Amino acid sequence: MAAGEQSAVSKRVSGDKVWIGDLALSSSFQLEYRPFKFEVLATEEAVGQAMYDELVDYAAKKEGDVSIVLLGGRGAQAMYKIISSKSRTDEIDELLGRLNVFTQDALAPMKMDNGLSFVRDFERLLGPAFFAKVKSFTPMFTDSNDLEGELAKYLAKLEAAGGIDIFFMGFGPESGAASHLCYIKPGSGAKFDDVAGIIPISESILEHHISKFKVGGSDISAEDEQECRNATHILTLGPAAILGAKRIVQSIVDASTAPSKRASFKRFIETEISNDPEKAAAQMDENPGLWIRLHRNVRSLVLPDLLTENA
């Protein structure tokens, strides 16, 4: 979704999933195989600093607002620590005043103050000064009986902000060494022009979500966990949002606590994507982590333990 352009929006049902598409994007991307480049940094703190530097450098080169999509879980916590500290001073007030901040996925229905929601975790990690100073913060609203309507409102705000400047992104493991981005899971039926989706929740998603929040240090009550386990759907940005972002900054820092990421990442970097659109679409649906491989402006930051089979 580019600034100043009106999108022709469609709704598509794929099994028990609902995908919201942007028809203008269906033929915007060309397939070509190229090796995936990534950088190995020594520490999580170094990854966080590199992510922060990406934000500062991008903002320095652009006039006006900057729209970013936040990454949940462990992946960006080191960057958030830097931003939180600087937000308590006036050092980056000019930058913060230009930021339109969005979330990329959410479990629903769920109260917005649940300790297992990304919103509460972002507030904990980034701190009140950050949210008081940014130009806008738009989460995916989850306390609603009209999830489609709320997702449509979210997408309208994202488009009004000019689309995504920087998409901070992680990498999730799946069975069979497959992978997911956001919550685009294998077999979800996501296509090139799908901007966002509503996906039924699975037990594996819930367990992964709860475990990574606990590892990350979130304050979670028994009531929060029970409500989370009663969630029925995931709201997620889709392939079109990923491919439409101007810059992607990926971080993978938690292979020590999520060791299955090693096999998933190995398959991810070694897969040769077909130049045939139908075959490529099948590859993406089987292994959605591959969507990022089609983007031309990616910086991927990993730790050494991601590449060690028996770490």
List keywords for this structure.
311 residues, five-stranded antiparallel β-sheet, globular, Rossmann fold
Describe this structure in words.
This protein is an alpha/beta fold and 311 residues long. The protein has one domain: Rossmann fold, CATH 3.40.50.1360. It has ten helices and 14 strands. A seven-stranded parallel sheet has the order 3-14-13-8-4-5-7, sandwiched between helices. The chain has a five-stranded antiparallel sheet with strand order 1-2-11-12-6. The chain has a two-stranded antiparallel sheet with strand order 9-10. The longest helix has 18 residues. The termini are far apart. The N terminus is likely disordered.
Secondary structure elements and their pairing?
Layout: E1 9-14, E2 17-22, E3 39-40, H1 44-61, E4 66-69, H2 77-87, H3 93-96, E5 99-102, E6 105-108, H4 118-133, E7 136-138, H5 147-160, E8 166-169, E9 172-173, E10 179-180, E11 194-200, H6 203-216, H7 222-229, E12 233-237, H8 239-244, E13 247-252, H9 260-270, H10 277-286, E14 298-302
Parallel strand pairs: 3-14, 4-5, 4-8, 5-7, 8-13, 13-14
Antiparallel strand pairs: 1-2, 2-11, 6-12, 9-10, 11-12
Q: What's the number of domains?
A: 1
Which fold does the CATH topology refer to?
Answer: Rossmann fold
Count of helical regions: 10
Strand order of the main beta sheet, please? 3-14-13-8-4-5-7
Low-confidence stretches: 1-6
Principal-axes shape call: globular
Strand content: 15-25%
Structural class label: alpha/beta
Alpha carbon gap, first and last residue? 41 Å
Q: Considering DSSP H and I runs of 4 or more, what fraction of the residues is helical?
A: 25-40%
CATH architecture descriptor? 3-Layer(aba) Sandwich
**CATH hierarchy class name:** Alpha Beta
Radius of gyration: 18 Å
